[in-house]
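Please decode residue identities from the backbone states below.
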């Protein structure tokens, strides 16, 4: 569990004026909430031994305390685009990376 110092450092890291952007969490049954994330929608190239697939690999990194209770299939709205949560990867330091799938 993060210490108070670590919580302060995480708050600074996730500050919207620094690197973070607002994401609106839209769970299936509960009330939505807004928290800050670091969003990465970088290019990804997958090569399956002769076939290459170009794609993006959207991820959102958030404070673990903000995303406790999220579940696969819940939705995040980021910059007006809706994503479903496909993976949840806590790193043990107080941050969790959410693997996202862009809703069509």
């Amino acid at each position: 569990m993060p210490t108070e110092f670590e919580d302060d450092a995480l708050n600074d890291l996730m500050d919207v004026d620094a690197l973070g952007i607002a994401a609106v969490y839209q769970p299936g049954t509960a009330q939505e909430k807004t928290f800050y994330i670091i969003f990465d929608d970088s290019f990804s190239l997958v090569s399956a031994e002769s076939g290459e697939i170009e794609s993006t690999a959207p991820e959102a990194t958030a404070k673990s305390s903000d995303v406790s209770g999220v579940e696969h299939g819940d939705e995040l709205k980021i910059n007006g685009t809706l994503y479903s949560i496909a993976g949840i990867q806590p790193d043990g330091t107080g941050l969790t990376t959410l693997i996202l799938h862009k809703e069509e």
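Observation: The longest strand covers residues 81-90.
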